[in-house]
Write a structure and sequence with these properties.
- This protein is of the alpha+beta class.
- It has helices at residues 2-19, 154-159, and strands at 47-50, 66-76, 82-88, 96-100, 103-112, 120-122, 127-131, 146-152, 169-175.
- A hairpin with a 2-residue loop joins strand 4 (96-100) and strand 5 (103-112).
Amino acid sequence: MQEGFRRALGILGLALCGLSAVAMVQAAPGETSAGAVEVSVNLGGRVWLTRINDIDLGTYSGTGDAMGTSRMCVYRNDTGLYNITATSAHADGSVFQAAGDGAFLPYQVIFRDAAGTTFDDLQSGQRLTGLQGQNFALLCLFTNNAQLAVRFAQEDLQAAPPGAYQDVITLLVEPG
């Protein structure tokens, strides 16, 4: 008896669910019949990071800081701002570090958005907010509107043991 009651409740539930998606204009019976269905979709803010390149600083000359940049495109599908979070594969807290032969070499990461004339310091795992992208061309019309730079300080480079050092910076871009 209980099994039959459960089945009846299930069928009633399915029937009621079907009633909630009724079309705006229902068809009338006849030789032909027509109805109308409303279609809608909502889109939230979206971002897209493209045209990013690796930064290879080559062999250190022995003097001065070692610096390099990667230009990129940050697209936004509306006029809103975006945020970026950069994380280091070898971070020491919020400090970016490159790893090599059991040693670590700290470095600075800085970022400039489309509106910026100066760079902002990034800390590993910490969000930088209120950045401006562009919303008129998905691939930035084949130009770049943002720049990531890295800087290894001379004193850190000269104090580090010899070897090849590397890190991977992961960039997360999200609507602001």
